[in-house]
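re: that chain from earlier
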Amino acid sequence: MPWRVTIRTGPQVERSRFDSVPEALDAVVGRCRELASGQRLAPIKVARRTFEPVQRVAARAELAGPGRWRARVRAGLDVRGDGSVEAWQGRASRDVIAQQPGEDAYAALRRAVAETLSRLRVEP
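^ sequence. v structure.
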């Protein structure tokens, strides 16, 4: 069962496939850690509104799978313009994954994917 990882940074798109969830999650987390450490955007002003770096998504990493045509799991990480990271899940609308005490966005993503897989009874 292939797992797809798509990483978008501005106009650049990186796509890769993995055979297992742990490999795919490691790729997503590793790449997002790299992007978050070097990501700093300046505020931008559009019309009369100013968008602060934390309001802007500088990079997005998406994990989708299993399945070729219709992924049953869709989750990922957003790297914000200030270097902060936010985990999300969902298809059409992205819902933020709430972090539990002592958990960062990376651990929240891993937990949410594991919970979804156990609920769907899919092998990691």
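The beta strands are 3-9, 12-18, 44-46, 49-51, 57-65, 73-80, 85-89, 95-96.
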